[in-house]
Amino acid sequence: MNMNPALRNLDSLHPAVDETGVKERAAAIAGRSVKKESKVAAIKMAVSMIDLTTLEGKDSAGKVHAMCQKAKFPLEGAPEIPHVAAVCVYPNLIRTAKSALEGSGVKVASVATSFPSGQSPMKLKVEEVRKVVQMGADEVDMVISRGEFLEGNYDYTFKEVQAIKEACGEAHLKVILETGELETFDNVRRASLISMLAGADFIKTSTGKVQPAATLPVTLVMLEAIRDFYNETGKIIGMKPAGGIKTTKDAISYLCLVKETLGDMWLTPDLFRMGASSLLNDLLMQYRKEQSGVYQSAEYFTND
C-alpha cells in the first residue's frame, strides 16, 4: 500500500492510538484553572496566536478591511495587547487584506485546493495555490482529499501535499486534515504523519465547515504525532486547531496542551495558531475583566 519510499518509515512512526488515554489526558488538562497574572499572560499569548478568519459566501472587501483593523489593533486604548498572527480569507480577498495589513506584521493566509471539500483534480489545486501565492498570500491553508485517504491511498495524500508544498514557494503551508471526517484517532495520526513527511509546515484540524471540528483529544493526537516526528527527524512542525474554539477557557486549555506535550518552544505564533472568528472578543472581554474586575458588555467590542 505504501509504495512511496518516503512512506517506508510510516508504520514505525505510527503506533496505535490509546483512545481512552487520549480522552482522559485531554479532559484532565481542560479542567485546569489559570488565574491572575498567569491568566493575563495567557490571554495575550492566545491573541498573538489567532488566525482571525472569515470564510463566508457574503464576505466583502469592507468586511475584510474592518477585520484587518481589528487584527492590527485588537483592543482600543490597550497597546499592550499584541496583534494577531494572521488574517485568513478566501483567495479573491487576498489583495484587500494585504493592502490593509501592510507593515503591520500580521500575515495574510488564504484557503485553497477547492476548500472546503478538496474535490478537484490535483492539477487545478496546484494552479490555485500558485495563483494565491502570486496574489500575495504569506500562508496557504490547503485541505487534503479525505476520500482518497480513507480508501487507503496514502501515496496520493503524500503526493498531493508534496505538490502543493512545491507550488507554495516561499509561502508557508498549513495542511487541513478535516479530522471530523477521518473517523478514528488512528487515521488522524496517520494523516498527520503523511502530511509532515510530505512537507507540511503546519498541520491543522479542520476547515470549520464540518462537525466536530477542533477538539482537545484530536489536537492531542496531532501534537503527539508532531512530537514523535520531531524526535525521529529533528524537523519542527507547527499545529493549528481550528473551528469551535470560542472562549478564553478553551484557548487556555489548548495552550496548556501544547506546553505539556511539546514544551515552551512551541508556544509561539510561528509554531502554534488557533483558527477562530469569535474567540478574539471573548479574550478581550476576559482581559478587561482582569484589569477592572467587571465584565464589559459584548457591545463594547467590534464584531470584525
Can you walk through the features of this model?
With 304 residues, this protein is an alpha/beta fold. It has helices spanning 19-30, 36-48, 61-72, 94-101, 122-134, 146-150, 154-168, 185-197, 216-233, 248-262, 279-292, and strands at 50-53, 86-89, 107-111, 139-143, 172-176, 202-204, 238-240, 274-276. The chain has an eight-stranded parallel β-sheet with strand order 7-6-5-4-3-2-1-8. Helix 3 links the parallel strand 1 and strand 2 (86-89). Helix 2 (36-48) crosses helix 10 and helix 3 runs parallel beside helix 4.
- Give the neighbour order of strands across the main sheet: 7-6-5-4-3-2-1-8
Largest sheet: 8 strands, parallel
CATH architecture: Alpha-Beta Barrel
**Count of the separate structural domains:** 1
Question: How many H/I helical runs?
Answer: 11
User: What is the mean pLDDT?
Assistant: 93
- Beta strand %: 5-15%
Q: What is the β-strand count?
A: 8
Structural class: alpha/beta
What oligomeric arrangement do these chains adopt? Answer: single chain
- Name the helicity range: 40-55%
